[in-house]
């Protein structure tokens, strides 16, 4: 399944990357040093927009397990791989996937329009919801999840042709909105699905 999705991504996403101002990405994982310092007593709070202009807060996803991935449509390798893994994990979960809301949050709201994101995510799985927002809102959500991103502009004469390094793990939240764990980049879809299924079996969504 992963091979099939990556083949689709590698061929069909090229025009989307070009439209997004894609430049060679020197991606580096910016993983949190630890989540132990993050308060676990309260759910992660944020406010963004979905890809149809509706205001979305963390409360909209209450009552379901949530997968959250931060990235951008111009990412040439890490994001397509991660989204393919997410989609394949949902397929492996089968009926259990109805308990999960998968979310892709762009860290490049300047270039990632709602239309572009809809087209991008459609190549992976229509169940993956996209969120975007002004930089201040994006930065707040990124910080809320103890994630990071850095913009790199190789040529100052072309400031719109930049790449973004970002946290590459996928966050898994419980139905209350608290972080359960992160799946590091490179985790297989099978391992992710099996782990999620075991966690959800202990506390299924009602």
TrEMBL record:
Instruction: Report the source organism.
Output: Rhodobacter flavimaris
Q: Which PANTHER family match?
A: ELECTRON TRANSPORT PROTIN SCO1/SENC FAMILY MEMBER, LINALOOL DEHYDRATASE_ISOMERASE DOMAIN-CONTAINING PROTEIN
Q: Its family?
A: Belongs to the SCO1/2 family.
Q: What is this protein called?
A: SCO family protein
Output the SUPFAM superfamilies linked to this UniProt entry. Answer: Thioredoxin-like
Q: Does the keyword 4Fe-4S apply?
A: no
Annotated signal sequence range: 1-23
Could you tell me the keywords of this UniProt record? Copper, Signal
Q: In terms of domain of life, where is this protein from? A: Bacteria
Where the record annotates domain Thioredoxin, the positions are 36-201
**InterPro entries this protein is in?**
SCO1/SenC, Thioredoxin-like_sf, Thioredoxin_domain
Organism classification, top ranks? Bacteria, Pseudomonadati, Pseudomonadota, Alphaproteobacteria, Rhodobacterales
């Amino acid at each position: 399944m992963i091979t099939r999705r990556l083949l689709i991504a590698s061929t069909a996403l090229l025009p989307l990357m070009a439209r997004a101002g894609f430049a060679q990405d020197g991606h580096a994982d910016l993983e949190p040093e630890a989540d132990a310092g993050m308060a676990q007593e309260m759910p992660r709070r944020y406010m963004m927009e979905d890809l149809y202009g509706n205001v979305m807060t963390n409360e909209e996803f209450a009552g379901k397990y949530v997968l959250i991935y931060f990235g951008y449509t111009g990412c040439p390798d890490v994001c397509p791989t991660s989204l393919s893994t997410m989609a394949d994990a949902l397929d492996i979960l089968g009926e259990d996937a109805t308990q999960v809301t998968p979310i892709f949050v762009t860290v490049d709201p300047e270039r990632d329009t709602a239309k572009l994101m809809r087209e991008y995510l459609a190549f992976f799985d229509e169940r993956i919801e996209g969120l975007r927002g002004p930089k201040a809102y994006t930065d707040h959500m990124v910080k809320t999840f103890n994630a990071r991103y850095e913009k790199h502009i190789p040529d100052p004469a072309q400031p719109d042709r930049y790449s973004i390094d970002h946290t590459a793990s996928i966050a898994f939240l419980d139905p209350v909105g608290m972080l359960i764990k992160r799946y590091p980049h490179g985790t297989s879809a099978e391992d992710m699905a099996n782990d999620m299924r075991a966690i959800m079996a202990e506390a299924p969504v009602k």
